[in-house]
Amino acid sequence: GTYTNTLTAANGCDSVVTLNLTVLPNSSSSMDASICDGQSYTFGSQTLTTGGTYTNTVTAANGCDSVVTLNLTVLPNSSSSMDASICDGQSYSFGSQTLTTGGTYTNTLTAANGCDSVVTLNLTVLPNSSSSMDASICDGQSYTFGSQTLTTSGTYTNTLTAANGCDSVVTLTLNVLPNSETTLNASICQGQSYTFGSQTLTTGGNYTNTLTAANGCDSVVILNLFVKPNSTSSIQRQICQGQIFVFHGQNLASTGIYQAVIPSSNGCDSTITLNLTVAPALTSQLNASICQGQTYTFGSQTLSSSGTYTRTLSSAFGCDSIVTLSLTVRPVVNTTVNASICSGQSYVFNGQNSSITYTSAGTYVNTLIGSNGCDSIVTLVLAVRPIR
Hints:
By secondary structure, the chain is mainly beta.
């Protein structure tokens, strides 16, 4: 309410004090709080470590008692463990720690309830791996090595992920092998074929075939193929009847056309055609006569007797020409003539070339031509008769 009081002021006079008195209420409140296990909570003059309900009387803002009821909860701390691994050369952040070596580490974090969460880390450091490999490609090819496409010889590295998740450094030694090229010259005879890889060739020209060389690369073979011609020729020959003509292993005795195939100078077939003629043997008859005492030359023979003789000559064809000679020897006729004349007379004796007149007795010989064309020897016996 409102109250007055008269006091004595410092100056000795009345000092009327009017009091407006207000009766303030006491207050009460409740609060919830929590602490972590192992922590303490100060509540007024109390230091609390266990959960429960506590009261404390404090002076409120209006100066009156304010009774505070505390519901205190003690929250548990938590712990956990974890396994982790890093690769050699890497680091692992664990709270404020940067770890590079394997081991067991702890870190205190704040859990969802605001209390400590002690995490134990088992850290393993995994090794990185390295390997090397050799590879080869042919000139003009490429080799894929990771993201690299390689075409030249050299040493290259590529970092892969190994089975443990760490780096696997692969070192590649790449060798570029050369392709090869060969030129081949070959020849066949006309009508023959040449096998070149899968090709069967019958005409001359330039051909290529790609093979696999000993190094596994292409071996390009260039073939220059020549087709050599076969040759033909013909000959004419003549033999005599009864003769044999040997023609490349054939014994021929009849007129006809024959062929033989022999290798020519270029190694190909040379077909020779033979036109063979068999010429007949010739015979002829010759009649001749000589006078007795004469000789007849018949080839190399000098004949003086009658008879039949043969001689083998060569005809115009070069064959035997058999000449048969019938030789007759005509006789010489001897005649004796007896004549007489009277003394003083003359006797004409006709000779072969002239007439001779004889006047004396005697024997005279004169050679005349007989009827057979031979000598006819006439002997004249001349007698001279006396006159009486």
